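Private note to self, pasted from the team thread so I don't lose it. Backbone tokens:
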């Protein structure tokens, strides 16, 4: 079969194959026609340049944005990666305005964003054959808990944590998971299922007045592993109060204290923390543990909302073990995606 080729007029009036980059060069020529010798290319686009510099500044000093007014700092940090969307918008606007000043200014937020999140654009997952752990906020209003239980069990996880378990649905989850997991414990609204024996099961007080966190020691073939399961309080964005997260922050501090007192060397934290790794309000936890997604994941691993994930608030964090891979699992009947990881003991 003859190879089809794009044709273009030649100097002799004939036609010949068009080189792949010729159309791009023509487009670039059209966009930049008139730039050379234009005395206004440095004066135009000042507003765009200022916006680009402000964008870079927000990303550079996000940890210093105060939480005193509506927890604005934590809100910014929760959706910090999405600020990168503004970069191509500013770039296109700079080209259309034919502003050299704006185009040069856009370089700064680009460099800052890549420094913060460029590492997440590559696939660091190494596969691996280590212990597989998974966590899922199953949603108290899940219309089909049995199907959700079967879906997460089919992932092959050796240790599975579930959050937001209503008392009425616990027997459904226990029945659906019994064939896969011989050992399990439910404390309040969180539960842990394991293929290996568990000891030392107890509630973790995260200062709520009811039980939404637990820990247990799992006797893996490679030795004991302390597993924490937590569902930190929800945050809200309100017009009159901004990003309200005071109770979440208080619970995060309490969880961090419990993990700091842990005597088992190898620790895994599974759960819905209602916050991202960038949120300074989770420092009591994130300063002690590594994110499996950040260390060995592919992409950002956003987990919420399941219909259009915009943030990773469901976390797998470790210390004393090496993350091998980390990923999100297929959507279930919940408004969160399950997340999973393999760790080398």
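Design output:
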């Amino acid at each position: 079969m003859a190879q089809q080729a794009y044709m273009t007029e030649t100097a002799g009036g004939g036609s010949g194959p068009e080189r792949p980059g010729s159309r791009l060069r023509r487009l670039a020529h059209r966009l930049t026609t008139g730039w050379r010798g234009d005395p206004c290319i440095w004066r135009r686009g000042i507003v765009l340049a200022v916006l680009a510099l402000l964008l870079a500044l927000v990303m550079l000093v996000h940890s210093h944005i105060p939480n005193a007014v509506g927890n604005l700092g934590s809100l910014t940090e929760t959706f910090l990666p999405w600020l990168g969307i503004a970069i191509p918008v500013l770039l296109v606007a700079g080209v259309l305005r034919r502003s050299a000043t704006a185009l040069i200014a856009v370089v700064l937020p680009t460099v800052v964003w890549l420094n913060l999140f460029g590492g997440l654009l590559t696939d660091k997952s190494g596969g691996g054959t280590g212990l597989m752990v998974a966590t899922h906020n199953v949603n108290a209003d899940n219309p089909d808990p049995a199907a959700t239980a079967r879906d997460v069990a089919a992932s092959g996880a050796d240790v599975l944590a579930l959050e937001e378990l209503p008392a009425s649905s616990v027997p459904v989850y226990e029945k659906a998971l019994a064939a896969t997991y011989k050992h399990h414990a439910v404390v309040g609204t969180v539960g842990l299922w394991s293929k290996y024996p568990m000891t030392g099961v107890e509630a973790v007080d995260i200062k709520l007045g009811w039980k939404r966190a637990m820990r247990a020691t799992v006797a893996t073939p490679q030795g004991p592993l302390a597993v924490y399961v937590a569902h930190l309080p929800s945050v809200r964005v309100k017009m009159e109060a901004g990003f309200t997260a005071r109770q979440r922050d208080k619970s995060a501090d309490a969880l961090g204290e419990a993990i700091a007192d842990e005597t088992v060397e190898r620790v895994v934290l599974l759960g819905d923390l209602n916050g991202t790794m960038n949120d300074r309000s989770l420092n009591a936890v994130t300063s002690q543990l590594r994110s499996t997604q950040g260390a060995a994941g592919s992409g950002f691993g956003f987990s919420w909302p399941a219909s259009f994930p915009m943030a990773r608030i469901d976390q797998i964090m470790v210390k004393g073990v090496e993350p091998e891979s980390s990923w999100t699992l297929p959507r279930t009947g919940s408004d969160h995606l399950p997340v999973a990881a393999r760790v080398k003991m």
